[in-house]
């Protein structure tokens, strides 16, 4: 018998809200977290709007020791620790004692690029011959696994502690990796999620590719327009999302709140073949990933009530909807409700899947589907596939039982997660 896996803790550090309560309220009220940044304007970015968590009011002493705070200059690492520690507390879990680690709990926490600002500072010091001034934290703040190492040490976890990286698919992949470890009985609890650095050194490459919107610098809250006919590219974002996954047996024994159940999912790659490339998906692989996720979850395609898509506000949005139609064999009025949270806070890159998964879980908990912002003018090719009323423009009261959440990343990599309202018996 495979273990059932449930979500018992949530944490988030997002452009539209730092902390679960603020994040939830912003989603319900359809409040955008995308703003204009003067530093992008000074650097002559074509796109000068972005999504960046506001951590100015956060007391970092509640998350880091004084030693850890010395020279701390990695935004992604900070976001990840805030979200991860908050999720652990939300699950009513505590740090293990100073003698023994918690052997039953582990971490899969992903990132794309970590510590860009710290790395830049280190390069300048090295170029000046000031190697001794690098300090003792430059390595751990710039290595990819720095985020899982920090969280593992702060919480004292003794099961697998690792970092994954698969571009925009990272966060959703991390959830599935943790899910599989618990399902197989190798761990009781896994802290899963992902984080992404903020700032021009992360976003500059995308601006150079000319895939970011350039006409909304005066109206930043209108810039991210998934599924819209006037979509002009994705808005870059940053932050972190975290979930505590736990075996149902452990959660029931502890008597804690259960937000949702992870029924299953799938991960694959299109191999950059048959139309797939470094930046474009192999459509057959996307459809296969969705179908394998449904089979792994043990449900029928008709059972999916809502989709939280990858949907980045690019020309690929219509293609993604077509892939969902093909994979589910559902169109028009039969198509599930569909939304994209990138309209609320931009495309958070490696953190996208985890932040959006936190929001997807909140939809199940709240009996609501959150709005698609800036989608008054749905792309006409999408309306040929999906009924207009299946694309919510405002928060909709709807008791969804099963939500599919997908991420599709650079490198032609895919992940699809099936989340369910928790039921005592299945």
Question: Could you provide a short overview of the structure?
Answer:
With 426 residues, the protein is an alpha/beta fold.
Rounded radius of gyration (Å): 20 Å
| Overall average residue pLDDT | 95
Order of helices and strands: EEHEHEHHEHHHEHEHEHEHEHEHHEHEEE
The tally of helices reads: 15
The coarse overall form would be: globular
Protein name: 3-oxoacyl-[acyl-carrier-protein] synthase 1
Keywords: Acyltransferase, Cytoplasm, Transferase
Family: Belongs to the thiolase-like superfamily. Beta-ketoacyl-ACP synthases family.
Catalytic activity: (3Z)-decenoyl-[ACP] + malonyl-[ACP] + H(+) = 3-oxo-(5Z)-dodecenoyl-[ACP] + holo-[ACP] + CO2; a fatty acyl-[ACP] + malonyl-[ACP] + H(+) = a 3-oxoacyl-[ACP] + holo-[ACP] + CO2
Describe the protein:
It contains 15 helices and 15 strands. The chain has 426 residues and is an alpha/beta fold. It folds into two domains: 5-254, Peroxisomal Thiolase, Chain A, domain 1, CATH 3.40.47; 264-420, 3-Layer(aba) Sandwich (Peroxisomal Thiolase, Chain A, domain 1), CATH 3.40.47. The strands form three sheets. Strands 1, 2, 5, 6, 7, 8, 9, 10, 11, 14 and 15 form an eleven-stranded mixed beta sheet that branches. Strands 3-4 form a two-stranded antiparallel sheet. A two-stranded antiparallel sheet has the order 12-13. Its main location: cytoplasm. Belongs to the thiolase-like superfamily. Beta-ketoacyl-ACP synthases family.
